[in-house]
Amino acid sequence: MKLRKNNPTFKKFTVTMAVLTLSTLAGLSTLNGGQPTTIQAAQTKISASKDTNEQIKPSKDPADEPSLVKGNVKGLWSQGYSGQGMVIAIIDTGIVSHRDFRLSDNSTAKISKSDAEKFISQRGYGKYVSPKIPFAYNYVNNYDTDVMSNDMAGYHGLSTAGYTAANGSKNNKDKKYVLGMAPQAQLLNMKVFGGFSDEFPNDVSRAIYDAVALGANVINMSFGQGVPAQSLTNQEQAAVKYATDHGVFVSIASGNYAHSGSLNTDINAASDSRTTVFDPANSGTVSNPAAAPSGMAVGSENTLLGDKLAMETMSAWGPTPEYFMKPDITAPGNLVASTAPHNGYAIESGTSMASPFIAGSAAIVMQKIMKDQPNLKGSDLVNAVKIALMNSAQPMQDTLFKGHVVSPRVQGAGQVNVTNAGNLKSSVTDAATGTASAALHQIGQSSKFALNVTNHSNTQETYTLNTSNGPWTESRKMDKKYGTGTVYDTRIPGATLTPDQSQITVDPGKTVKVGFTLDLGNQAKQNSIAEGYISLTNSDATQNLSVPYMGYYGDPTDEQVLDKPANQKGSIFGGGYLLDRQNTMLGISDRTSLSGYVNKKGTYGDSQIAWGNLPPKIQNDKVAFSPNGDGSQDAVYPLAYTKQSLANAQIRILNSAGKVVRVVDSETNIDKSFSEIYGAQIDDMTMAVSMRLHPFAFTWDGKLYDQSTGKMKAAPDGQYQYQIVATNYNDGNKKVQTMNLPVRVDNAAPTINHATYKNGKLAVSYNDVGAGFTKMSAMATKVGKKAFGVSLGNDGNNNKGNIKYNFTKAQQKLALKSKKIKLTIWDVAGNKVTKTIKLNKAKVHSLPSNASQIKWKLQTTQLPKLDNHVMNTVTTRFYPSKGISFSGLNDNNITLINANSKVYNANTHTLTIQGKVKNPKDKLIILKSVNKNSKDNKVKIDKSGNFKYTIQVAPVGQRGIGYFLTTPGKKKSTTQSGTLEVITDTVAPSLDLSSSLTGNQTSHNQYSVSTNDDTIHIKGSVNDNVSGVRLTINGNNIYHQQNDAGFTNLTNPGEDPNPYPIHQFDETYQLNNGENIFTISAVDQVGNTVTKVIHVTRN
User: Residues 565, 566, 572, CA angle at the centre, nearest 5°?
Assistant: First the structure.
């Protein structure tokens, strides 16, 4: 299966369809014909104009916009709830000033100008904009000026803000305007994207904490990354919980990655769909922080009604890796009108737009509930709003498959009904968890669960239980030609869901518990989903309640979680092979011959060889590298894919006897592999968010630990296995799975035994004692400045051979002008031999052509970049700015600073920023303070363009330092902006060993032990002030703490941000006779290291 390629994309979940040109009112007036065009935004995709014209209908009033009608918003407006006194934080790319961002009555504002200015004064940052937007701040670059959406960051935040709470006026001169869900609510402009490819959890978390402190009622976040499990130690998820615990509702876009089986391959053109190329055990692609338990993850539907109602195909599917139910709800997000730059309007699509629909809706539902139940506070208030929205939602039917329901794994509770939510008298929740969905996790043929029905009104309410909407399971309608399958839900034959009572009456203020028995019968397929909806019908249809349920029947670990290698039948992702650090696929040929093959035109066809066609050609017995430090194939790392997110992944090296001789790396929280939106970029295991600071941690450098010397040394030549060990989040028979990739260590160079050139004829004999060659192998033949590749004529089974090649007349003439011919042969491990033939004067001969032996005419070592292993989904950031360079700091990227950093003084907490500009006449501003125009921010540049500047940075934390470089031009100056993202941690980890090992200290961190035993226990504990500490013993990474808690403790500033306990370890090692040296090291995320060495003498 061949993977398609695509370009890097931003990780915000909006699709900008067209700029609105409106003939009447802006709400939903007619688009001015033609193809829609793209404005600056993330995740862009162009739909056919046919779709636009079908879904965007003329409207006389923005309040009649289909999304508002479909979500039943206006009913609450008519009751007087449109966001007065409510505050919604938009954590996004920033908000541009727009005429529709206004309050009808400024006296309804919850946050006054004086309130905002007091907060700004206390914090030392932020900006008051208007009564509608009382606070704005850029959390990426940490300054007040650039708080708006712009061309660099995109206008994503402007769109989400408008859809949430725009309050346009019909008195606008051009009669154009839009209305958001909560038009009278205030907005907080919290910018967390500043021209980078994704958000930093630290910036997002800071914004969340500030939103809570400012008095926000609702937060909207329309972005995400990865496919995480639920974790209250994850920095973003912990911040979401902090918000909900403090009474702030959090709406989050679930993501635009569709079903995890919808990979973009040569047989499936679109990854953002329900058309799948394989049948995964877990269909989930819900991103972080949407996976947060207390947040509301939002899916996206279209704005059509009746039989045209449908989910947006790109909307992310659940469940989470451990089978919690997400998304929670669905809202109109496809082709909706919102604000655009320059007081304009645009049509937007994606879960990015569905989420602000829920954010605005939650604000007005909360406004109503706060009046009806004033005693509700904190998480109780948030839960009441969330449950009301979910209980009142209406499960959608599948319009592609009539009579079938849309899976709760993609629509959650169903289509939002805002007015019903605000007026519900009762609630129904899972009795075990108190949530408005029932996640049953792993279930057997028969299972039981219960729901609690609580009456919050002062009247008795009666409900009839209806379980006919299920149990369903996932099926695939197969396309026999391509082998793809469209997923849909179908009934499980013979399965039933039976309540223990068919009707209940609930007295005011009381709760009735209803038990259910789920019986899947005898025809349910093992290892499949069982799901559906339970309805509670009231005599008043507006009081009907609904709750989704889902369980996994069987063992989710039965799935082969690590995808098969590309050279094996059944490989789905086309990975499962090793590369060197120069991007060479190992096991095909040497790099030079491979690049000649890939880049050649003519002999192998009229176009370049498709990069994606090569992996199936890998020969396992030819996968080799030479860790000798010559820069050619010195190390290996994998391109490997996982069908499920993993709790842990470990890289081990096994020798030919199957013994583990090295543990290269241990990682936690590895995201599953899935297609990037609208393209074939499939994130491999090393693209996991948890590996963003160390993306090449899976690399084996070919070294092993020598216990007799205490040093790392090159592994002996021979056969090894590169083993990936995957640990599932779920329990089961195959919780831990492995995949072995054969690799040979070969440091022996080939030899050229004989080489002659006479009368235009080249004769060469060669030999190799190592991994040898393949059919693709060629000899580089350089005559003068020209080089061409001559086939070795090797069938791949022999390590020796003879080459006989007749030079063409042109080549002979070239040889006449040259004094020598240089020959180079590489083996598949990257070892090379070079031989030079000195030439005598001769004449040109007419010889038979042997052009078939020519592999390439000009030597090239350039190979295509492997798109699905480029760090563009998780931060490699933008390219460095032009005309400026920094010393010791990464421009527009992350710099890790530890206690030994040359650019940071840990005693004075001073960061030195120095570098050089190309034009000494440039003006440079580096943001020491939040005010861009402050004199403190101006940097002096000398006549040579050099500069040096100092800034205070906390010894532990993360900070984006913004800068502006203005270059004078003939007509006008141009200004570039950038960011130096620094992560500082000057505190070393703690490493304590048991007293039995440290009783005899010979020098600093050096200890000696004498024993008669043949084994020794290396015992102790390790921890750090920041999460993510690693423990290595003898070069083996035996422990790696989860590294997702961030570098700042926002809940308790000044305290360590590490929420994880001390790790105790006890490892047993075999002792050799005589001296044994054990090296134990603790290393934190930024490289602070503590090492202790134990010299053990076995008597």
Answer: 90
- Strand segments, DSSP code E, in 543-676 are 545-553, 577-579, 624-625, 637-639, 646-654, 660-670
| pLDDT tens digits, 580-638 | 998 899 999 999 888 877 776 534 343 455 677 889 999 999 999 999 999 999 999 99
Count CB neighbours of 825 within 10 A.
28
Strand 15-19 relative to strand 344-349, pairing: antiparallel
b vs e for 222-235, b when ≥16 Cβ sit within 10 Å of the residue's Cβ?
A: bbbbbbbbbbeebb
Helix (H) or strand (E) holding 380: helix 378-392
User: Has residue 870 got a pLDDT over 70?
Assistant: no
User: Is residue 717 situated within a structural domain?
Assistant: no
Residues paired with 739 in a beta bridge: 724
Same domain for 1060 and 975:
no
3-state secondary structure of 722: strand
- Which is nearest to 319 in space by CA: 260, 272, 359, 247? 260
Domain contains 822: no
Is residue 817 in some structural domain? no
SS3 of 754-789 = EEEEECCEEEEEEECCCCCCCCCCEEEEEECCEEEE
Give pLDDT tens digits for 136-146. 999 998 887 66
Residue pair 406/474 in contact by the 8 Å Cβ criterion: no
pLDDT digits (tens, 9 = 90+) for 104-126: 999 999 999 999 999 999 999 99
For the chain, counts of helices (H) and of strands (E):
14, 56
Amino acid letter, 1008: S
Nearest of 836, 784, 790, 842 to residue 814 by alpha carbon: 784
CB-side exposure of 63: number of CA atoms within 13 Å?
12
Alpha-carbon distance of 772 to 753, in angstroms, equals: 15
Kindly tell me if the per-residue pLDDT of 1035 is higher than 60. Answer: yes
pLDDT for the residue 918: 96
In tens, the pLDDT along 486-506 reads: 999 999 999 999 999 999 999
- CATH number, position 903: 2.60.40
697-740 pLDDT per residue, tens: 999 999 999 999 999 999 999 999 999 999 999 999 999 999 99
Q: Is the pLDDT confidence value at 878 over 70?
A: no
Check pLDDT > 70 for residue 947: yes
What sign has the CA pseudo-torsion 645, 646, 647, 649? Answer: negative
CB atoms within 10 A of CB 582: 15
Q: By the 8 A CB rule, do 700 and 662 touch?
A: yes
Domain count, the chain: 4
pLDDT at 59: 41
DSSP string, 1057-1068: ---SPPEEEEEE
Q: What whole-number distance in Å separates Cα of residue 646 and Cα of residue 736? A: 10
Whether the CA torsion 103, 106, 110, 111 is positive or negative: it is positive
Mean pLDDT confidence for 922-946:
94
Which letter does DSSP use for residue 154 in this model? Answer: B
Active site residues: 92, 156, 352
d(CA 635, CA 628): 9
- Do 138 and 65 lie in one domain? The reply is yes
**Which residue range forms the structural domain that includes residue 999?**
990-1098
**What band does 970 get if pLDDT is binned at 50, 70 and 90?**
confident
